[in-house]
Amino acid sequence: MNVYNKNKNKVAEEPSDRGKSKLRAAWEEWRTLIIFLIVMVLFRSAIGDWNQVPSGSMKPTILEGDRVVVNKLAYDLKVPFTTWHVAEWDDPKRGEIVTFYSPDDEKLLIKRVIGVPGDVIKMRNNQLYINNEPATYSRLDTDIVNQLDYYQRRTHAFFNEKYQEIEHAVMLRPAPASEYNSFGPIEIPQDQYMMLGDNRDNSRDSRRIGLVSRDRITGRAHTVAFSVDYEEYYMPRIDRFLKPLN
Fold first, then answer.
1. Are 49 and 70 in contact (CB under 8 A)?
2. CATH 2.10.109.10 in the chain, residues?
3. Fewer beta carbons below 10 Å: N end or C end of the chain?
4. What's the pLDDT tens digit per position in 16-38?
5. pLDDT at position 33
6. What is the homologous superfamily of the domain 50-244 according to CATH?
7. For the chain, what is the radius of gyration of the CA atoms?
8. Mean pLDDT score of the chain, rounded to an integer?
9. What is the per-residue DSSP string for the chain?
10. Above 70 in pLDDT, residue 136?
């Protein structure tokens, strides 16, 4: 009787043993790939990533179809998949291009930092003033302008905007003053930042969504990794590969 029970128990255990063996074999075969994927996901969440740019709000600096490299360790270390800060060692600087979650709808956006805590920002018909000092505007390099299509070149004005030692390209649509191209003065509170797109009249930025808190900023964009032209059957724009962002 005891022998029968032992055999019976042995037979009952065999399917479970076979299942464990298959799982063990699958793990042995795929563990390198699984570990690699987990590490990559964690890396992209907390250390570095590349983001596709779907809109033209940062033209002419960033074009639709650009893939930009984002350094997520530029300012702090966060718990992966969250905005919880483990440690902070720097803050966004005026003029830097950053990614952040919109306080309006939680979408991931990319804009330029225009106002940092303590700044007083105002705009008069697209003329930017920071701490009562006006930005200066000069003619933009034609090579930058020629990246855009004929219609945009005809309907916009292009400038190099400079404030102190910070300068970058902007595009503007000549138009009467409105609440969008004229606002302020606004004093930027602690832990808040003002974000504007370089495409000043076609950007959903702090003029629409409000100021952005420090904890919403996810990283600093610094390079175009590669770029494809949506209007030309996704042909690569070779001249934009590994292009530093200014």
1. yes
2. 50-244
3. N
4. 666 667 677 765 666 665 554 55
5. 57
6. Umud Fragment, subunit A (2.10.109.10)
7. 26
8. 85
9. -HHHHHHHHHHHHHHHHHHHHHHHHHHHHHHHHHHHHHHHHHHHHHTEEEEE--SSTTTTTS-TTEEEEEETTSSEEE-TTS--EEEE-----TT-EEEEE-TTT--EEEEEEEE-TT-EEEEETTEEEETTEEPEEEEPPHHHHTTS-HHHHHH-EEEEEEETTEEEEEEE------TTTSEEEEEPPTTEEEEE-SBTTS--SHHHH--EEGGGEEEEEEEEEEEEEGGGTTEE-GGGTTEEP-
10. yes
Of 125, 107, 101, 115, residue with least CA distance to 200: 125
**Measuring CA to CA, which residue among 107, 104, 106, 95 is closest to residue 55?**
107
- Please name the residue that has the structure tokens 């300012």: 75
Tens-digit pLDDT profile for residues 166-201 = 999 999 988 777 888 999 999 999 999 999 999 999
Mean pLDDT across the stretch 61-90?
85
| Verdict on whether the full-model pTM lies above 0.90 | no
Q: Is the peptide bond before 134 cis (omega within 30 degrees of 0)?
A: no
In the predicted model, is pLDDT for residue 54 greater than 80?
no
